Amino acid sequence: MKKIPDTDKKPILLKVLLLQPIPVTTAIVPLQPQEKKIISERERLIVQVERINQMAGELEAAILELKAIANTLTTQKRYPVLKCKNICQYFAVSVPWVKRKPDESFILTTRRVDLFRAEREAALLAQQLRQQTKKRLALQRHKKNKSGAEAHTKGLFKKVLVNKS
What we know:
- By secondary structure, the protein is of the alpha+beta class.
- Helices cover about 55% and strands about 15% of the residues.
- The protein contains 3 helices and 4 strands.
- The chain has helices at about 15-20, 40-75, 115-165, and strands at about 5, 10-15, 95-100, 105-115.
- The protein has a two-stranded antiparallel ribbon. The chain has a two-stranded antiparallel sheet with strand order 3-4.
- It is elongated and about 120 Å long.
- The protein starts with a strand and ends with a helix.
- The model has no long low-confidence stretch (mean pLDDT about 80).
């Protein structure tokens, strides 16, 4: 037999070690299915509130997209089949919404969908741009009039000086 020195300088017999049974002191734990994460009813309620509000946001976006498509169809002249001026009528619309009160309770209510917000914002922006343009034009005219008046005054002084001499 061949002896192999160990790091502790003790001789080990390979064949003897391989032939001797090794006593098992610990068993392999069988695989267990993972336990489902147990969440409280309160956590389930909060998750459901968030889901309802997310779906309400998606529904609102879909409604606004419907309006945009209808407006596009109304303004295009490619669709002679549409004899009416507006392809879609709009009434007050709301979506379900869950609000959280300060005492951590919830209220199931509705939230109004503002169908004409984009038009109001566009009109407000157009008005602001018109006002800025008016101010800019007035400032340019003022500068032009001021420089023109100075040139006119300088010309008068030159004429007066020329006439006196």
